[in-house]
Amino acid sequence: MSMLAFDLRTLAASAAAVDGVLAASDPIWEDGDRPPAGGVHVRGRLSVAGPGRFYFSGEITGVLRDECRRCLTPVEVPVSERVQWLFAESGVDDADDDPDVYLFDHRARELDIRPAAREQWLLSAPAFVQCREECAGICPACGADLNAGPCGCPARQDDRWAALRDAGGSRGDTPGTT
Question: Which of 21, 75, 119, 146 has its CA 20 to 30 A from that of 43?
Fold first, then answer.
């Protein structure tokens, strides 16, 4: 039994303290997911919330390791979120239609909270990270880290505007007027 899976018979008799880790190497993570460095730590209490229903209240914590969106420097961002999850047997009341309820098979022997932990991590972890608020990024021409100072590239101008720039003329000149 996983540290994040609980025997339903035991759970029906008494609440369970939850203190486990959803490992970054766990097969529950899918391609495209951004799993945490070192796993998601799940802590809280899991208890009965009625026939065929269980309630979890606690928190998830972890560290997202990613690259700064501006300068590509490796960044570690702590993620911590208070969570409350409701688990219900499929077919109980209207739980099947409620997107906020995690369903489990009525024949199951264990309640696995890993899917809820994975989903909450994906919702809580930032989509983009920056090394710092004032990050200058990298030069699009030479790739130099602009946080270290100017790169020395000649000033780049957008050639799509060259015709207007080269037309010059005085401000009072309007085509078609005499």
Answer: 75
